[in-house]
Amino acid sequence: MKPIYSNEELLKMYRNLKRGRIFTLKAHECVNNGLIRSSFHTPYGQEAVGVGIASALKENDWINLKHRLQTAMIMKFSLEEFLGELFGLKSGYVNGSGFDFHLCDYDENGRHVSGGTAVLGGTIPLNVGFAWARKRLGKDDVCVIACGDGECSEGGTFEGWNIAALYQVPAVFVIDNNQWAMTVPLERQTANPNICEKAAACGIPDYQIVDGNDILAVRKAMDDAIELARKGTPNIVEIKTLRWDAHFVGQGNDYRHDKDMIAESMKNDDCVKRYEEYLLTNGIVDQAYIDKVATEVEDEIDTAIKNALAAEKPSREDIYRKEYIYATPETGGDL
């Protein structure tokens, strides 16, 4: 298949994908070594989802980063400040107090990352409101709002979809459907395995279903979805993949009944290997280039971990700041 993106763009996506995979494996080691002390929801096997989404964003677009989109997070935040957050150190973006659940940057000249909540189903209404506000302000940007398959069984999600359709909010709803909501398989969550089709009842009939292990398919779907939303039509991209690991590192996969599927996916449907094969087949790179990128990225991440760990621990004053707790104009929390 003839590439639809420039070689420069294809290689940029590859480096971010490889970076995401190595980061995922290194973060897993950090949990086992006691450096990450909270629940880390590994995107192992799903790295193409975050990279494909983030690669499609224009500079003025916004994204809400859910807890399993770390591969997109390290494209928005520097490795050292993101690792500092995971380690709970002062080098983190918000002094180690936000972890990867609550990172956001609402500065117009900043990273354009909107916030979320740890409440299942709570993030979509919040971000629909933000996207609606952007429209009312006359801004020409799109808000990408991500959620998992489990979140789509919550009432708040349907309320958000309804408001988005009612007011033609410039939003793309991305469903990261990895077949599992914590420990509940998809077939026990929903009678309709195509979750996006449910949004039609709320007035959002425009959707795409895409192979989440094909980074180019994810990227193309997001390109189209973002442009549709920019024209005033909210829509959905359901990205189907498979969660290889447990819900969080250390939980164990003993409850899984699909271990054969995981093994098959690892062998024949690895998003990183698939993209490498595509690049090799089309003569865009050779094996020497792939090996070189792997070495460079591993060195980059090892250095970032080392530098992040050299930071001091935050003080009580660093963490318990009023603007982190009460978002009011008096505390600097106004937008």
Mean pLDDT: 93
Order of helices and strands: HHEHHEHEHEEEEHEHHHHH
Strand order of the largest sheet: 2-1-3-4-8-7
State the low-pLDDT regions, or none. none
Helix content: 40-55%
* Silhouette: globular
Question: How does the major sheet shape up?
Answer: 6 strands, parallel
Estimated share of beta-strand residues: 5-15%
Number of helices: 12
Which radius of gyration do the C-alpha atoms yield?
19 Å
Q: Which assembly state applies to the chains in this document?
A: single chain
Written overview of the protein:
The structure is a single chain. With about 325 residues, the protein is of the alpha/beta class. It has helices spanning about 5-30, 45-55, 70-75, 80-85, 125-135, 155-165, 215-230, 260-270, 270-280, 285-310, 315-320, 320-325, and strands spanning about 60-65, 115, 145-150, 170-175, 180, 185, 205-210, 235-240. The longest helix has 26 residues, at about 5-30.
